[in-house]
Structures are given as C-alpha cells and as structure tokens.
C-alpha cells in the first residue's frame, strides 16, 4: 500500500460525506428513476404554457410537447445499446499495442 | 519609453519568459510563484493594451515579410483572457508538483498558445504553433515510460500540422502578396493545406487520435494543461480564417457524434474526457461553419466555458488518479465517501458540460445550436441534439457516476490536496457565475466578438429551459431504466481500437516489413556488388597479373594480328554506326 496514493481499504469516511451517505442506500438508487420521471412530466406539462415559438418541422401534434424528451431518450438509449456490439468489435486486451498499460500512477 | 513599448509586446512573451526562468530556478516556490503571477500579468497586459481602433501592433519587416506580432481585437481578446485564466488555474492545480520541466513547459506552452492567438500574420502564427508542439510534448512524456511512444506520435502529428500550415501559408502568401492572417477560405492556394494543418490540432475526424492517445497518458497535471490550449488555439485559427466555410458544419457534426460511441465503451475516465473534448470541439467547429455573428459569439463563449469545465473535469479525474492511482472506471466507485469536495467539483463540471440551466454550457452551446436552427439546417440541428444527449451520457453521467458513486470500490483515500481543491473551486465558481442569469452570463456576452448581437440573445426563456431540461431528464430516465433492467454495460478493462489502429498495428507492421525488406535488399545489393567486383578482379588478375595470360610469352606475329583485328573492328563500328 503506497503512502503516496494513500489507499487504505478501511478508513474514515470524510466528515462532509457522512451527511450524504444516504445517496448510497438501495432505496435511493431504486427510486432515482422517479426523479427523472417527475422531471419529464413537469417539463411536458409546462411546455403547454411555454410553447416553442420557433418549432422544428418535426414538432407537430403531441411532439410539440415531447419532442426533446423523445430525442434525448432515443439518443441516450441508442448510444448505450450500441455499446455491446461496439465493445465486442473494438475491444482488445489492455496491452494490445505492447506499450504497457495506460497511465496508472 | 518602456510603457510606450508595452502595446507592441505580445503578452505571451511574459509567460514564455517566466517559463524560461523556471528552468533556471532551483526554488520550487519561485517557480510556482512564476506560474501564478505570469498569467495574471499577461491578462493585465491584455486589459491595459486593448485598443479597439489600433488592434495591429508590434509590426516590423524582416527578409521582405511584414510581421504583425500583436493583434488584440475582439476575437482574439476573449481567447487571450481565458488562456490567462486557465494558466492561473493550472498553476494552482500543479502547485504541489516539484518538477522543473513540467513547470517550465507548462508556462512556455501556455505562452505559445497565447502568442498564436495574438499573431497577426501566418508566419508568427506558425512559430507559436510549433512552439506549442515542442513545449507540450514534454508534458506528455512526464506521464512515465508508457507515455513515450504516445509522446512521439503526438509530436509527429503536431509537427505535421505545423508543416502543413507553413506550406499553406507560403502558397497563400505568394498568391496574396502578404502573410496577413485574416479570412482565408478554401478558394485560395494553400487554403486546404492550412485547413488540414489546423484540423489536426482541432481534432477533425480521422485526425483526432493524438488527443485520446496522449492526453490520458500524460501526468496528472500535464493532462489538465494539455487539454486547454492546442485544440482551442486551433478553434481560434478556424474562427479567424474559415468562418462560414460550409464544410465545417458537417465536419463539426461528425466530431460531435463519433466520440459519443467511443466514450460509452471506454474504461479509462480520462480517455472518456478526451473523447468528450473531441465532441465539444465539434460544436465549436460546427458553429464556425455556420459563421453568423451569433454562431461565432456562441463559439467564443463555448471556448471560454469549455476550457473551464473541461479543466474542472480533468482536474477532478486527476485528483482521483493522484489519490487512488488509477482513473479506470472498473477500479473506481464510491469515492464520494472519501473525496466529497472533488465529487462536488466533478458534478458541477458534469452539469456544466451537459448544459443544465444555471450551468456554464447552457448559455453558450445553445447559441451555436440556435444559430444552426436559424440557418434552417434541421438535420444538423437534430444531430446536435442527439450529440447533446450523448454528452449527458459520457460526461454528465458516466464520469461522475463510475468514479464517485456506482458500486463502492472500498477505497478510502484522502481528499485531494488543498491546491487542487482551490483550483477546482475557482473553475467551479466560474462554471456557475458565467451562467448566472442575473449579471453572470452578461459578463461573458460583453467579451464576445459581437457583444451587441450577443446581448440580443436571451438564454433563459421558459421554452429554452424546458426543452433543455426535458432532453436531459429523458436521458437520465433512459440511464435509470437501462440500469434497472441490467442493460447498462459494466465497465471492463480493455484497449478500445480507434482509427489509429491502422498505423499502430498494420501500418507499423508494414513499416517494419519494409524496413526488413530494405535491409535484406541492401545486404543482397552489397553482396552482389562484392561478388561482381570479386569476379571482375579475379578475371583481370587472370589476364593481367604476372601469371596471367597477357604476361605469357607469345610470338609478336600473334600480337600484331590481334591488334589488327581490334583496329578492323573499330573501323567497322565507326563506319557503320556513324
């Protein structure tokens, strides 16, 4: 265990972090999704009162209210789902180039 | 007298001089003082010497070429200020590091970047351009033995960039009759060459790999410095020389998109940030391609906030690397317990890059996207929105989540050193201030190239806030849902291939094979020449040596006959061939 890195497997938690340990509770993690759902609902409802003054061609009908959500959700999902085939195609052993591992101090 | 000269001195020279002094200073504190004071002095010089009427200064003629070593106008000024600020933050972040080479090179590199931005002619630009390459490669090499090859590739790319710039500049100079660095475009001789040269430093697609190759391998402090200047200097050169060049819109869009797919499968979080850097550069390049006043304002603003929030993100990952010893997502997690202040800094950087309202990029990136929309380029607009969701994935969620949250890696480390926290605190404060709706972003707008037009743009409209929040909430929902369904991929240690595979594997193999073939050919050639020479010598020896056939006794009649035959042959040849 290097002193320089100060890595210890068991040590004190930072005093400031003690107030935020609830972030790690399974309940919070499980219910995190509701934060985004409520955000989506809230923005969609408010869009009724603040409509886009310069809509894009695809912002017609219900898309006037949810276009950006659809784009964001689709894009994010597409990117993440592409990870598996991309990783299978592009991943190689870490020392593939024979130059040693990437930077680890 | 001295103060009269001041406007004619490039502020960059102050920083470069400080860098040179650092080499000779044995005192750590003197070096660190120089690292902090020099950018502040340079910033003050910019402030003091800016004159909206007399923007071109430091002019002289040498070898028939008119040099303009200082140009501080509204376009270069904003770059100058943010470079000085970045230099100051970098100096504070690296305060703990005791290394002459790093200190010196960081300063010279900062100065070179600033000098390039203030260059009024292409030759001055080229000289500072190359100085950035030469000074910064040492920062890569400070990353240790594994960084050596990456540093060599980095140097190769950057020297190539400079050579292309110079070749293009010479062609352009011969055509235009001067080397003034103004709008160049693609319709003039050398225009394409210079675009390629600048494109290397700007991380154009297929020319980008030096960023992801070198930055993650540099030292903790080196990466933060490296991520600031070269690429943004190139963005400045594009904004100065190629504003409104349509092809840049499409190049920019590709730059925003492809890094998203690499970042999602990359395990090294500093490499993720390097891809993210490429993605952000794409927005800027796209804005330059649009070329309208609003787009260029957006680009200038995005450069400012990007330098700050990307430094912040690199600093937070640097702090993690410094304390934990790795920045690999698969090895991290749960660090908010030990490094809460670094976590907060990283979250502010993440929110800024993702363009949450009240965070830095919300104001500036939307200017670029709005300019694209105003240009009626709806497909590009849609793709930029797609890329924005991608930014949320790799920098907004992935980096902070896997480093500080996710599963607890069980590592309990000290919080980052005070100087690092201070540097991150300053950067985080700027991320918030420059997006603050009540007098915050207006300060940034006042520095933009066209402040009057910038002030007309109102970023905090109900609709803009809602659409941006909806996009980001949808991305967060997708993340939470994919996590819950177990579809979100785990981080795995691996080398992810990029286009540089072509020259690092097959290209290298071809080069080695060619080298082997050349060696064999040379050996064969040497042997062949030697054998031929040996044979000829042997034959001559057989004929002319004392024991040879010509030395043997022979009747004079035979010799006379042979001479007559040779003469007859000569006559025959002369008669018929002539």
Sequence-ordered SSE layout with sheet pairings:
The complex is a heterodimer of chains A (105) and B (578).
Chain A: H1 15-18, H2 26-49, H3 63-81, H4 83-90, E1 91-92
Helix pairs in contact in A: 2-3
Chain B: H1 2-5, H2 12-24, H3 28-49, E1 56-62, E2 65-71, H4 74-93, H5 100-117, H6 122-141, H7 148-176, H8 191-202, H9 209-214, H10 220-241, H11 247-265, H12 269-290, H13 293-324, H14 340-353, H15 361-374, H16 378-404, H17 418-433, H18 441-447, H19 451-456, H20 462-484, E3 495-496, H21 501-504, H22 506-544, H23 556-577
Antiparallel strand pairs in B: 1-2
Helix pairs in contact in B: 2-3, 2-5, 3-4, 3-5, 4-5, 4-10, 4-13, 4-17, 5-6, 5-10, 6-7, 6-10, 7-8, 8-10, 10-12, 10-13, 11-12, 11-16, 12-13, 12-15, 12-16, 13-14, 13-15, 13-17, 14-16, 14-17, 15-16, 16-20
Structural class, from helix and strand content of chain A? mainly alpha
The greatest interface between two protein chains, and residues involved on each side, is:
A-B, 72 and 87 residues
Shape of chain B: elongated
How far is the first residue's CA from the last residue's CA of chain B? 83 Å
Mean pLDDT across every amino acid position of chain A: 85
- Unreliable spans of chain A: 1-10
**Strand order across the largest sheet of chain B:** 1-2
The helix content of chain B, as a percent range, equals over 70%
Average pLDDT across residues of chain B?
Answer: 93
| Strand residue percentage of chain A | under 5%
| Helix and strand pattern of chain B | HHHEEHHHHHHHHHHHHHHHHHEHHH
Indicate the proportion of strand residues of chain B: under 5%
**Helical segment tally of chain B?**
23
Largest sheet of chain A: none
The N- to C-terminal Cα distance of chain A equals 13 Å
Radius of gyration of chain A: 23 Å
**Secondary-structure element sequence of chain A?**
HHHHE
Number of helices of chain A: 4
Number of strands of chain A: 1
Helix and strand content put the structural class of chain B at mainly alpha
Report the helical percentage of chain A. 40-55%
């Amino acid at each position: 265990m290097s002193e320089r890195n100060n890595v210890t497997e068991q040590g004190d938690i930072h005093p400031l972090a003690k107030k935020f340990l609830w972030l790690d509770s399974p309940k919070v993690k499980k219910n995190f999704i509701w934060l985004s759902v409520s955000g989506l609902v809230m923005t969609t409802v408010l869009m009724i009162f603040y409509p886009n003054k310069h809509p894009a061609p695809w912002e017609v009908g219900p898309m006037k209210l949810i276009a950006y959500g659809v784009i964001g959700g689709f894009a994010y999902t597409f990117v993440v789902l592409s990870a598996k085939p991309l990783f299978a195609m592009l991943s190689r052993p870490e020392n593939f180039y024979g130059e040693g591992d990437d930077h680890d101090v | 007298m001295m103060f009269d000269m001041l406007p004619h001195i490039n502020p960059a020279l102050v920083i470069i001089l400080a860098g040179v002094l650092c080499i000779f200073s044995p005192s750590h504190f003197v070096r660190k003082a120089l690292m902090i004071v020099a950018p502040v002095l340079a910033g003050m010089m910019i402030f003091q010497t800016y004159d909206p009427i007399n923007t071109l200064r430091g002019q002289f003629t040498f070898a028939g070429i008119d040099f303009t070593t200082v140009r501080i106008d509204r376009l270069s000024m904003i770059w100058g200020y943010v470079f000085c600020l970045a230099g100051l933050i970098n100096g504070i972040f690296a305060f703990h590091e005791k290394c002459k080479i790093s200190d010196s090179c960081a300063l010279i590199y900062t100065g070179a970047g600033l000098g390039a931005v203030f260059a009024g002619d292409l030759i001055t630009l080229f000289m500072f351009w190359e100085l950035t390459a030469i000074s910064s490669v040492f920062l890569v090499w400070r990353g240790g033995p594994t960084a050596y090859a990456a540093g060599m590739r980095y140097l190769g790319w950057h020297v190539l960039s400079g050579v292309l710039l110079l070749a293009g500049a010479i062609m352009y100079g011969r055509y235009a009759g001067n080397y003034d660095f103004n709008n160049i475009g693609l319709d003039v001789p050398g225009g394409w060459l210079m675009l390629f040269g600048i494109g290397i430093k700007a991380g154009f697609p297929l020319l980008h790999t030096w960023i992801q190759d070198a930055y993650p391998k540099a030292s903790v402090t080196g990466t933060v410095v490296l991520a600031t200047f070269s690429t943004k200097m190139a963005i400045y050169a594009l904004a100065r020389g190629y504003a409104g060049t349509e092809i840049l819109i499409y190049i920019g869009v590709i730059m925003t998109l492809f890094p998203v797919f690499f970042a999602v499968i990359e395990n090294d979080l500093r490499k993720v940030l390097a891809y993210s850097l490429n993605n952000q550069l794409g927005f800027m390049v796209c804005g330059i391609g649009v070329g309208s006043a609003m787009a260029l304002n957006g680009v200038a603003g995005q450069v400012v906030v990007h330098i700050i929030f990307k430094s912040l993100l690199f600093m937070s990952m640097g702090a993690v690397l410094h304390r934990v010893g790795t920045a690999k997502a698969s090895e991290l997690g749960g660090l908010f317990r030990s490094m809460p202040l670094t976590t907060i800094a990283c979250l502010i950087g993440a929110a800024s890059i993702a363009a949450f309202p009240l965070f830095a990029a919300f104001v500036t990136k939307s200017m670029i996207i709005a300019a694209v929309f105003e240009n009626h380029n709806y497909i590009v607009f849609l793709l930029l929105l797609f890329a924005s969701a991608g930014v949320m994935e790799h920098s907004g969620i992935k980096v902070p989540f896997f480093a500080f949250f996710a599963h607890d890696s069980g590592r309990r480390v000290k919080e980052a050193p005070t100087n690092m926290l201070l540097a991150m605190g300053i950067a985080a404060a700027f991320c918030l201030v420059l997006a603050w709706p009540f007098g915050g972003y207006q300060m940034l707008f006042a520095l933009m190239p066209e402040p009057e037009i910038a002030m007309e743009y109102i970023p905090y409209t109900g609709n803009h806030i809602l659409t941006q929040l909806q996009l980001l909430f949808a991305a967060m929902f997708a993340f939470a849902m994919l996590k819950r369904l177990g579809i979100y991929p785990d981080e795995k240690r691996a080398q992810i291939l990029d286009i540089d595979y072509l020259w690092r594997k097959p290209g290298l193999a071809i080069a080695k094979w060619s080298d082997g073939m050349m060696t064999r050919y040379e050996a064969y050639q040497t042997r062949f020449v030697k054998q031929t020479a040996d044979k000829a010598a042997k034959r001559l020896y057989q004929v002319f040596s004392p024991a040879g056939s010509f030395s043997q006794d022979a009747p004079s009649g035979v010799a006379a006959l042979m001479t007559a035959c040779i003469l007859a042959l000569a006559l025959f040849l002369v008669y018929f061939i002539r």
